Backbone:
């Protein structure tokens, strides 16, 4: 065994004897130390210094200051920033001490005129917790100004779009026209007008409530509302919003005397422009409206096309968004009839000299349609059916028929329908 090993064994043996011998003495010593420490805590209770961060500050005597017609100018949040406070406290209350245990105030009680002041921040604490030793920062710079009131005009602006199928009654919109603001004279003097902005996006029911206003100066630059002392200005806004429905215009229900038109005349169509209109109202009322009626009007004795301005009949509980009248185009025309003529000979025209021709079929039937008055003038002797072979040589041809009735004008106006559209012509 080396000398190093012998030394190691001796050290281990000495440690073993230390922890195994006189154990009771050691336990008694530990208990005595604990009792001694308890005595130090309870009887001596030494002091320690604890620094508390984020202690809130407030004004003391602000109501009295405002009573003198004065106020603090500036952003209150920046002025009343949290401070750090060092507190000398006993060790038994050290753990319980928190920022809420401390009160930090800026006294305004000795201020009597507008100017800039350097005021101390005073912190206090219950004597049970200890004594305030230091406040950091120790002072604050305040600007005191005259407290004034001012009335400024307010305008209301609507932005965004309502959902499809809804309409806002801007004519019935109402809002506060002016607001009173209070604050430091220097700041309040900048404010010239205010604006209330209402977002219409996704709105489907009436707007009625109070909304904050934005303050502006003469250059239309926004003035921070932090300058206002007391209640921030607001505007009461009311705007009716209704569902919209498109309904057709019922023309047929307004027509009177359609069976008493001029002799042999009829009403071919009656079309309104526009053909539909928009209405608004409570949803339950709109569901019961399927069309918009017109004030009745008479067409008795009429014999030509005409356009009539007709008034819409608006149901109760409904508002019309479009014009209250529509134009009704009346297509009044003479009645039509037809004649049928049979076995009309087919004539051949334009045949060159020296040639002969036959046509199959050589007779056709003809249906003549048109105005009653014109048909009354048409006689069988006025009808001519032919096939033109001008310039054709010997051969067999399939050619169209031409029909002429009375004169060229009548031929163009009448509808002429032969029993066959073409005929076979053989030229020899």
Residues:
């Amino acid at each position: 065994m080396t000398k190093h090993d012998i030394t190691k064994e001796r050290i281990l043996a000495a440690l073993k004897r230390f922890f195994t011998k006189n154990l009771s003495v050691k336990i008694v010593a530990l208990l005595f130390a604990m009792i001694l420490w308890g005595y130090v805590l309870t009887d001596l209770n030494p002091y320690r210094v604890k620094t508390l961060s984020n202690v809130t500050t407030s004004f003391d005597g602000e109501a009295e200051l405002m009573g003198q017609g004065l106020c603090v100018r500036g952003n209150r949040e920046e002025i009343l920033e949290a401070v750090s406070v060092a507190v000398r406290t006993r060790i038994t209350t050290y753990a319980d001490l928190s920022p809420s245990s401390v009160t930090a105030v800026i006294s305004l009680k000795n201020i009597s005129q507008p100017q800039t002041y350097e005021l101390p921040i005073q912190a206090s604490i219950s004597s049970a917790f200890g004594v305030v030793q230091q406040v950091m920062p120790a002072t604050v710079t305040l600007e005191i100004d005259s407290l004034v009131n001012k009335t400024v005009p307010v305008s209301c602006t609507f932005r965004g779009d309502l959902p499809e199928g809804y309409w806002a009654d801007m004519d019935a919109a109402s809002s506060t026209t002016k607001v009173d603001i209070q604050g430091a004279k220097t700041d309040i003097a900048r404010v010239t007008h205010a604006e209330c902005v209402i977002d219409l996006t996704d709105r489907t029911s009436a707007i009625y409530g109070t909304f904050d206003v934005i303050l502006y100066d003469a250059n239309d630059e926004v003035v921070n509302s932090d300058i206002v002392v007391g209640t921030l200005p607001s505007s009461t806004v009311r705007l009716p919003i209704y569902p919209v429905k498109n309904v057709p215009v019922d023309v047929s229900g307004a027509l009177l005397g359609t069976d008493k038109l001029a002799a042999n005349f009829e009403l071919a169509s009656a079309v309104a422009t526009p053909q539909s209109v928009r209405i608004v109202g409570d949803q339950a009322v709109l569901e019961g409206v399927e069309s918009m009626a017109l004030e009745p009007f008479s067409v008795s004795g009429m014999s030509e096309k005409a356009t009539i301005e007709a008034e819409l009949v608006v149901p109760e509980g409904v508002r019309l968004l479009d014009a209250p009248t529509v134009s009704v185009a009346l297509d009044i025309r003479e009645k039509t009839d037809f004649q049928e003529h049979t076995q009309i000979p087919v004539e051949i025209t334009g045949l060159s000299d020296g040639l002969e021709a036959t046509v199959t079929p050589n007779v056709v039937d003809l249906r003549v349609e048109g105005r009653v008055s014109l048909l009354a003038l048409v006689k069988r002797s006025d009808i001519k059916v032919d096939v033109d072979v001008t310039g054709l040589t010997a051969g067999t041809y399939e050619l169209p028929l031409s029909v002429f009735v009375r004169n060229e004008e009548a031929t163009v106006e009448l509808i002429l329908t032969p029993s066959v559209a073409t005929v076979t012509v053989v030229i020899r």
Remarks:
- The chain is about 15% helix and 50% strand.
- The mean pLDDT is 90.
